[in-house]
Amino acid sequence: MEIKTKFHGNVAIEKDKIIRFEQGLPGFEEEKEFYILPLEGGADLFVLQSVATPSLAFVMIDPFLYFKEYAVKIPEDVKELLNIQDTKEVVIFSLLTIKEELKSITANLQGPIVINDRLKRGKQVILVDSDYQTKHELFLFKEQKEGSK
Hints:
There is one protein chain. It is built from three helices and eleven strands. 11% of the residues lie in helices and 34% in strands. The protein is mainly beta. The chain is globular, with a radius of gyration of 15 Å. The strands form two sheets. Strands 3, 4, 5, 6, 7, 8, 9, 10 and 11 form a nine-stranded antiparallel beta sheet that branches. 23% of the residues are buried. The chain has a single domain (2-137), classed as BH3618-like, CATH 2.30.290.10. The longest helix has 6 residues, at 76-81. Acts as an anti-CsrA protein, binds CsrA and prevents it from repressing translation of its target genes, one of which is flagellin. Binds to flagellin and participates in the assembly of the flagellum. InterPro entries: Flagellar_assembly_factor_FliW, Flagellar_assmbl_FliW_dom_sf.
């Protein structure tokens, strides 16, 4: 199967690796199917690409690589919705906001993308009663660190 993407042009994808978001994403409830692609040239960056809408793509990271103390308690209703039976089948990402040509990058730790990798089901979870915010500063590139001095 081939899809048009925001960052990679046309890409051949494996249909069985499409991730289904039954409730869509907040603000994009009609978008149900996404595919994860690596972002070329990115330091551990990924793209959550809509299968149906080429212009809809989110840059994301594995938050545990950058925020060592980060912890996510997946609510029971989400475990049920995604049919999570074992934490080993869970993959978690954080969406990024990138401004001014990489000079300001923040990670949304309050709204992680939770995926059951075995069943290819996903949901953006909003963590309530947590100290996490939607904008945690992130330094991915040397130029970004130098520009913030």
